[in-house]
Design goal:
With about 120 residues, the chain is mainly beta. It has strands at about 1-5, 10-15, 20-25, 35-40, 45-50, 55-60, 65-70, 75-80, 90-100, 100-105, 110-115. Helix content is about 0%, strand content about 55%.
Length: about 120
């Protein structure tokens, strides 16, 4: 069993930055892909970023060049550094751990970007 807890969300002006954290407890190792996804009202869930074994990263097209995902060496935390934030980045951001058919979700953290 894996528990995930996001933190770091909040209200920021357009152009600003935020750093989200996801604390993972339980058994997580390099077999898990750690992902960030977001869900805005009246929109489908959107892939944001992922970091997989070996530190390979992937990003959604809308955040490339602005967001950066990282993971600590103990595999117990993953981070999402968000810069040049835009109002359209407003959403609840979720941390997700996935290994094969097994996946876990955090409760989410709200990010609101004002004009």
């Amino acid at each position: 069993q894996v528990q995930l807890e996001e933190s770091g969300g909040g209200l920021v002006q357009a152009g600003g930055s935020l750093r989200l954290s996801c604390a993972a407890s339980g058994h997580t190792d390099s077999t898990y892909a750690m992902r960030w996804l977001r869900h805005a009202p009246w929109k489908e869930r959107d892939f944001v970023a992922a970091i997989v074994g070996g530190g390979v990263t992937r990003y959604g097209d809308s955040v490339k060049g602005r967001f950066s995902v990282s993971r600590d060496k103990t595999m117990s935390a993953v981070y999402l550094q968000m810069t040049s934030l835009k109002p359209e980045d407003t959403a609840v951001y979720y941390c997700n751990a996935k290994s094969g058919p097994v996946e876990y979700w955090g409760q989410g953290t709200q990010v609101t970007v004002s004009q």
